[in-house]
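Dear colleagues,

As part of the handover before I leave the project, I'm documenting each prediction I ran so the next person doesn't have to rerun anything. This entry is a single chain, and its sequence is reproduced below.
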Amino acid sequence: MNHRQPKRIWNFSAGPATMPTEVLDQLAEDLIDVDSTGIGILEHSHRQPTFDRVLGDAVESCRALGEIPKEYEILFVPGGATVQFSLIALNLIPDNATADYPDTEVWSAKAIVEARDAVPSATIAVPFEGKRYRYDHVPVEGEMTPTPGATYLHYCSNNTVHGTRFHTPPKAAPGVPLVCDASSEIFGRPMDWNKHALVYASAQKNFGVAGMSLVIAHRDLIRKPVRRLPSMFSYAVHLAAESRINTPPTFAIHAAGLMFRWMIAQGGVREIERRNDAKAALIYKEIDGSGGFYRGLSRMECRSPINVSFRLNTEELDQMFTKEATEAEFDGLAGHRDAGGIRASMYNAMSISASQALAQFMHDFAQRHG
């Protein structure tokens, strides 16, 4: 087999997303031989000591990185966040009960549909309808009417398409716990665990590879699902089986463990947050200083530092921007099909140098075409 020198370009894709070369190098080595066993990670039994070590390390590193209290369980569940849209409702919402789902964008809207399909007898209330505002902001004080006695309030903390973010968690009705889809910003800032009963995230943006989700839930919440469920649908069974009811996504779990350790080595969640804010500031500076050449899709007070979405003055300029960006070796900058325009996704592994390069490209493009 011929080996070529790897080529790396700037990857601003919304996911799967860029990963650190240190982690990729370790994964490449471990594909052939993990822990000097002579067997690669893809070939190891999930019931053998080597994978016991991999799984234990992933759980321990995740807890340390996220500063996760001991009463919260850490599960690695096959499938992306869309699977969790159904599993959360099936495990947590009793028949004829109510759960609140503010609609702040594409993924929260899909979560609403899946929850209604999963538990048809339940009421999935929508206390905020962001579609009315073209999803340009998350609810501010007085815009949301939470349901008293709801089972929980589900929200997406960072909205990837239009680039909005809850800078503080939304207020549920008194005594109602929060369930958070943190897929696009997990470990990108500290999580207030006291306010959350369950937090989940798909792996392919911030801590690994596609095909798996992380579920962090209060033990008391998931020990007893509200109805009898098939084993693969039950968080309680996943917990009892230590995330391996059947053969789990072993490679994805190993990749997650390496990513958790990498983020710890970088300085942890607070350092990652500082870097993410710095990366975003470079891009927003170009938008705000362009005299209207670039126009953000979200209101300033709820801008996301993770997904920066913007448009140029015409669709032709949008297309010209992405074409020239591709030629300059920037990938993944076309906006989501529901929003159009441009989107720069800068997850936890994205380097500051990538954002600096994009900011310079934006500046030069505006000089040429403005």
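The longest strand covers residues 72-78. The chain has ten helices and 14 strands.

All the best with the project,
I.
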